[in-house]
Amino acid sequence: MSGEKVRLGLDGLAWFKSSYSAGNGGECVEVAALPGTVHVRDSKDTTRATLAVDPTAWTTFVKFAAL
To answer: How much is the pTM?
Structure first.
C-alpha cells in the first residue's frame, strides 16, 4: 500500500489504511500484519470482529484484486 497511514489499535496492532482512502465514508479496510497472520478490519467500524488470514492467502488476494 502506497503512502499508508498507521494507527495503533487498542489491540496493540499497527493498523494501516491506504492513502487511497479519501476518508469520506467510503468502503475501506485496514490491515495489520504479523509474522504468521494478516488481520483485516472495517475502517468505519473498528470495534467489529477482524478477519485473520495466512500471509500467503493475503498476498494471493491482493494480487487478484489488482487485476
So the answer is: 0.74
